[in-house]
Amino acid sequence: MLNIAKLSVSAAGRTLLHEVSFSVAASEMLCVIGESGAGKSTLLKGLMGLMPCRYERFEHRSSAEESAFATTSGLGLPACRYVMQDPLAALNPKRSLGQSICESLYTQKLPAPEQRNRALSALEAVELPVEFYDRLPKEVSLGQAQRACLARALVAEPELIIFDEPLSALDALVQKKIALKMDQLRREIGITYIVVTHDLGFAAAYADRILLLRNGRMETFQDKGDFFANPASAYASDLVGAAQTLGALNRMEAAE
Amino acid sequence: MSMSLSNPNVKQTIPAMPGTWTLMVFALTLGAGMLMTPYDPTQADFLNRLATPSALHWFGTDHLGRDIATRVLYGSFWSLGLSLGVVSIGAAIGTIVGLVAAQNGRWVDMILMRTTDSFFAFPELISAVTIAGLFGPSTMNLVLALIVVSWMKFARLVRSLAISVVQQDYILQARLNGLPAWRVLWQHNLPNILPGVFVLWTNSWSRTILAISGLSFLGFGVQPPNAEWGAMLLDGKAYLLTAPHIMIFPGLAVLFAVLTINLTGDRWRDRLADNI
Amino acid sequence: MNALLTRLGGLVTVLFGISFITFAVTHFAPGDKALAIAQARYPGEMGFDAEILEGIRDEFHLDRPFISQYLHWLVDFLTGDFGRSYSSHSKVWDIFAGNLEETFSLAITALTLGLAAAFLLAGLAVWRKGSLIDRFAILLASVGAAIPSFWLSILLILLFSAHLGWLPAYGTGTLAQLVLPTVTLAFWVMSSQTRLLRSFLLEAYDQPFVETLRLRSVSEREIFFSHVLRHALSPALTMIGLDLAGLIEGAVIVEIIFARSGLGSLLAGSVLARDLPVVVFLVMFFALTYVLINTVIDLVQTFTDPRHLAGERNAV
């Protein structure tokens, strides 16, 4: 589905992320983990097309693009939607949830009733009542707002959804519910997920592949099973060990 | 009794603050009054000069026998209408400057904000006196002078609001969703900026009413025989000792108009703060 | 350090901006400047020969391009040469210095009186929050902000000069003539500060240390005078500083109303007589005073609270 080799992201002439390679197959979930400052959000901005990128190979679906370190203004993935960390910042406080969801369909130029119908079924898919279409962000709970953000991503029927710490603003109980919902939708509809997170427990429970970043470089890129069974680097095994001590992995696996 | 001071909220202690309705009743009274008065605001009646308030002339007559009540009513057109125009134009200019500065950043921002700072250094009334005086005292020059001194507050406010809005994730989402720039501005930036501008707008409106009447009273604004409240006071100044009633009502009108707008603005501001 | 340099650069830019705006406004005002100078120089005469006007244009460099005239004036201004009045031929600086004291004494007296009243009123309002005194203080502040100062002065004249005959209405010189203008201006100071002071005091009472002091059974009087008041003083001083520019402006307007000599009457007279050197200097003086006051407040805040250094300069 997505296969990127030696991706570097730079800003103002400085390279912030060095030669990261990873791939994710259709309807798989890739978790990008690492401590703060590791380059997670830089990778995200590169993928969003907000920062200039260089890469050796960039395959997206069937279309492959190969170049010897071509410089682009950004990748700007087609058929992709985004879910941000803080749902209240990601939703315009002056617009209803329905309006925000419909905005995701802007480039598809659908007639208004059609847009509304699709927004309503997206609300249904994330288990929000239809009357939430006319609610303002401040009138719903944080978890409900994040569900609306998920609906906004789903309504465009994307092949890929990129999440930026989608759970870290939420309470533990709500975290679990939304994580389960995300996982269920991915399996049912067959969307590919890239999830940036610092929550190793979440990655252990739901990811197919794990990309570990450290200090702006790629540390490891492994299947989930391999990553937790025999981590490819000392740093990765420290990380897994620490998480096991804290019981984070068991907790999330129990949730599943 | 010990001082119990848990809530510093001013709102509670203000008795029955007038809101939008008061403003509308105020406007309707003015309109109805202008339609119903039997007098002409500029028609002199020399047999009735300097008459004290009576059933026929509620506020009395001035030195030319003109009905003061009628002139106060018509004066609202000058004081309220003119200031409304001045503030709206100033707000529009300031909003555009602030938006452009926030959107472009770097050099454009620096140049525009230093220009704003420079204009800010001139005290409002002093610049208005100077401009209106040098360019010739007239209504038009008064309006120009007041616009020149009124836009900077809006530019600063809009810039700071716009910068904080631009950093919000919903703007990024809109761009990632492929919305064109003008649509992002219209649907996302402006709706989150304009409420703040509106509060400043009511505040500036009342200040401008004070400025227009003050400058007219000093002879730098609307000229007699136009029935502007400040100009009426200037007209009556010579009769201060013989017919003091001339000086009372136009001043009361200014006081009442400014007080109403200020209190309404306070109410709107509180309501807006609740909404955010 | 870097932030300080940036700010200094901004300050210099703003000063240039001020000088440019001032000069441009006076330069592009309608009317023949040579004629204005001639009329001021030879009062009583109406028609002037073309040669006289030509001579004046030459003398004052009036036929040079705008930028050249501006730079010429700016260099003079920076080197302390503020020119001479068209009408009286005295040095602008001397005229200014002669009028400064009147305005200054009016402003300082009014500031002292107004602040004393504001502190008293705000203190009483906070002492009995929600009581009649509190409501009265808020009402007075609201009305004070809405009352046109020129109208207030008329009312004062009507009452104290016309009706009671206690005080003279117009003029300068005696102490009695200072009373009504001072009261007018002091009322403005009081109404603009009472409400702010009240909220600063209430905020100070909200601080956790007040409860601690009460638990240690410190008397209410001591809490107010040695803790709360001190806590509220810092924001209050900032607001008062910001209002100083407004005070000078108010003084100018009040002077014109009461026909007192001082900077206000000087400005109004010079504007109407098109005595441009005086006008330019006065406008520059008011603008520079504003910038000076703001810079001082800014610096004081920076040195008392280092967090301000990184923050925005212009708090809205």
UniProtKB/TrEMBL annotation, chain A:
SUPFAM superfamilies: P-loop containing nucleoside triphosphate hydrolases. It holds the Pfam family ABC_tran. The keyword DNA-binding does not apply. InterPro entries: AAA+_ATPase, ABC_transp_ATP-bind, ABC_transporter-like_ATP-bd, ABC_transporter-like_CS, P-loop_NTPase. Keywords: ATP-binding, Nucleotide-binding, Transport. GO terms for molecular function: ATP binding. Residues 2-240 form the ABC transporter domain. This is ATP-binding cassette domain-containing protein.
From TrEMBL, chain B:
Its main location: membrane. InterPro entries: BP-dependent_transpt_permease, MetI-like, MetI-like_sf. Residues 76-265 form the ABC transmembrane type-1 domain. The chain crosses the membrane at residues 20-39, 80-105, 125-149, 193-218, 238-261. It is found in: Cell membrane. It is a multi-pass membrane protein. This is ABC transporter permease. It comes from Parasedimentitalea maritima. The lineage of its organism: Bacteria, Pseudomonadati, Pseudomonadota, Alphaproteobacteria, Rhodobacterales.
Automatic annotation (TrEMBL), chain C:
InterPro entries: BPD_transp_1_N (IPR045621), MetI-like (IPR000515), MetI-like_sf (IPR035906). It is a multi-pass membrane protein. The chain crosses the membrane at residues 7-29, 104-126, 138-161, 167-190, 236-258, 278-297. It is found in: Cell membrane. PROSITE patterns: ABC_TM1. Residues 100-301 form the ABC transmembrane type-1 domain. Pfam families: BPD_transp_1, BPD_transp_1_N. It comes from the Bacteria. SUPFAM superfamilies: MetI-like (SSF161098). Keywords: Cell membrane, Membrane, Transmembrane, Transmembrane helix, Transport. Belongs to the binding-protein-dependent transport system permease family. This is ABC transporter permease. It comes from Parasedimentitalea maritima.
